[in-house]
Write a structure and sequence with these properties.
The protein has 305 residues and is an alpha+beta fold. It folds into two domains: 186 residues, no CATH class; 99 residues, Glutaredoxin, CATH 3.40.30.10. Helices cover 57% and strands 9% of the residues. It has twelve helices and four strands, in the order ααααααααβααβαββα. The chain has a four-stranded mixed beta sheet with strand order 2-1-3-4, covered by helices on one side. A hairpin with a 6-residue loop joins strand 3 and strand 4.
Length: 305
Amino acid sequence: MEMVQRIVSSRWVVLAARLLLGGVFLASAIGKLQHPALFVDTVVDYGLLPEALSRFYGTVLPWAELAVGISLVLGLLSAAAAVVSVGMTLSFAVAGIYSLVKTEDVPTICGCFGNLVSLTHSQSLAVDAAMLLAAAVILAGWRRADEPGVLWLLKGPLRGRPAWLAPALKLGAVAVLTAALGLAITATNEPADEEPVTENPRLMYFWNGCPDCYGPEVEQVESLQPDYAERVEFVEVDYVSDPSSLERYGVIEDEFTVLLMQRDGVTGEYHEYARYAGHLRMGTFDLAAIRRGLDAMLSEEGQGA
């Protein structure tokens, strides 16, 4: 037991835990800040909190994650950041467990990392457990949690200064860096690319980019390409990367949706010809119906087989 305590309290073990936990929080914050509105909607969709509180939580959380990540990686008030991280991680775990128990009307992916990584709720709970373990290691060595760190290097020049000066400098540094990095991320957010101009009708399929969630549905839709690719443009839409597509096409989040789109020969605009939504695991995804819809749409345009 004493050996375990020595290992856990080692400066380098604590540093490794800091970098691991801080890196996870930075990645999580960056992914959310790239599409902040989508993350807020994801939090609302969980239905765990009243809508107003959900929107507040979804707006504030990425900035809190960014501050915690910066604090841990740079060794600025690391023990305090670890305490805050425990509270946030427990909230993530509660949402994950709730989603596993209540499988209806909740997102099928956790949204933990925005569009950087898609995780199922089971996978996110495993990450949560690792994060809590890293936080425990940091708190076990809390006296030296900031070593080595940015201001730890200035320990000599700060010696003899008022006791409050070092914590104040650390807090100020975290605040400034959080604001600067957060604003830089949000400033570089780009709108979705404009759709290419084509005269062919389209088959658009919408999913969340999670192979474990909708990989089989994607494979079935793409199996149609050999028969229709010369006459129909297949357009894949990852609504996590392009959240505006949900509202633009009236698609429901966390539902695999296929739209058949016809082009108006006069205006050049596309309008919806047919819509299909479903899940293979629930027996509601009908590839044969999509194929019949394609044939009917092409027949109307004189492109039948």
